[in-house]
Design brief:
Helix content: 10-25%
Number of helices: 8
Radius of gyration: 21 Å
Largest sheet: 6 strands, mixed
Shape: globular
Order of helices and strands: EHEEHEEHEEEHEEHEEEHEHHEEEEEE
Number of strands: 20
Strand content: 25-35%
């Protein structure tokens, strides 16, 4: 049986189409997913992200533990800042991609993908041996609501005294929203400006309704997982289980920048990732690229990418119609020889038909700042 978020009754009352996602009952869409997508690009959208997994790491050596367990260097974060990072196995394979917030000198919040939270918690617990620090499962302590889009600062600004203007991207601060305590983070997964609000589950419904009312003048709408996927795809953001897996390294995914090979003390998977970095510098076997359709047929994950002679040169990892571009798009791993933007003769095998696609650099969409 699927778990439910504190906002489940709200979604039902709004007539949301619900789906099972990573063991959670979540809203897929409330009406038109295209309209929800466009609202986030032009105004604001409201998301329930309470399925995400929160793990608190505390103790005098909390930073050192996370430096050892993750590929990044969380100990270098200032209090109130956040960083995108990953946790890998000894082979360098990605167990999950994460956001780590530094809440205090001895306290960090690790946010994992819903399907991987148990795996991440188990790995952090195992890797904590010998450190004066401990991870704690805090999933029951938080609900998570996101407001995303160019109008999001105005919407949230009506409900908080927090100085949103000075809150930098990938930073968070404690504050109040609609009179309720929350951690306000300037993070998101849509390619737009926006905020993620960590609050007590019992306050989630009140905050959702307050944000809905505050956002009405700007055209804010509730948004489901369907448009979240097309938004992140347009923004070139990877999704675990698609672009990222335990069989890929951060360097395979073009995200080697998150790996701090030179940090003191080493970390789990360092040797394998150093070798992956060398392979990537020489010439990686496959590269993650963007594909834009010339026609209208939509590629799906797992579809083969082929060269002009029909040779399979790669595989689609994510694909969908792009409301912003007006054409189907995809991310795919392709042989390095075919990865340069503008490479001719590339197609996707869509159920036996080779549909022509243009190779482009990621992301497909970048917001105006």
């Amino acid at each position: 049986m699927s778990r439910t978020t504190p906002l489940d009754s709200v979604h039902t009352a709004l007539g949301a189409v619900m789906t099972d996602f990573a063991g959670w009952r979540m809203p897929l869409r409330y009406g038109s997913e295209r309209a929800e997508h466009q609202a986030v690009r032009t105004a604001a959208g409201l998301f329930d992200l309470s399925h995400m997994g929160e793990i608190t790491v505390t103790g005098p050596e909390a930073g050192a533990l996370l430096d050892h367990a993750l590929v990044g260097e969380p100990s270098a974060l200032a209090v109130g800042r956040a960083r995108y990072t990953m946790i890998c196995d000894e082979r360098g394979g990605i167990l999950d991609d994460l956001i780590v917030y530094r809440l205090g000198e001895r306290e960090f919040l690790v946010v994992a993908n819903a399907a991987n939270t148990d795996r991440v918690l188990a790995a952090l617990t195992e890797r904590s041996a010998g450190f004066d620090a401990a991870p704690r499962d805090d999933r029951e302590r938080y609900a998570l609501i996101a407001v995303q889009g160019p109008a999001s600062p105005a919407v949230l600004g009506r409900l908080t005294d927090a100085d949103l203007g000075s809150l930098r991207y990938y930073a968070g601060l404690p504050g109040t929203v609609a009179g309720r305590p929350a951690m306000i983070a300037r993070t998101g997964y849509t390619g737009e400006d926006g905020f993620e609000l960590f609050c007590a589950p019992e306050n989630a419904e009140e905050l959702w309704r307050a944000l809905t009312e505050a956002g009405a003048p700007d055209g804010l709408v509730p948004c489901g997982l369907a448009c979240r996927d097309t938004l992140r795809l347009e923004a070139g953001m990877p999704l675990y289980g698609h672009e990222l897996t335990s069989d890929t390294t951060p360097f395979d995914a073009g995200l080697g920048r998150v790996v701090k090979l030179g940090k003191p003390g080493g970390f789990v998977g360092r040797e394998a990732l150093a070798a992956a970095a060398e392979r990537a510098e020489r010439r990686p076997p496959r590269v993650l690229v963007g594909l834009v359709a010339e026609g209208r047929r939509v590629p799906r994950a797992g579809y083969p990418v082929v060269a002009a002679d029909g040779t399979v040169i790669g595989e689609v990892t994510s694909g969908a119609p792009s409301p912003t571009l007006g054409r189907p798009i995809a991310m795919a791993y392709v042989d390095a020889a075919h990865a340069a933007p503008g490479t001719a003769g590339v197609a996707v095998d869509v159920r036996g038909t080779h549909e022509p696609y243009e190779v482009v650099a990621l992301p497909f969409y970048r917001r105006q700042k």
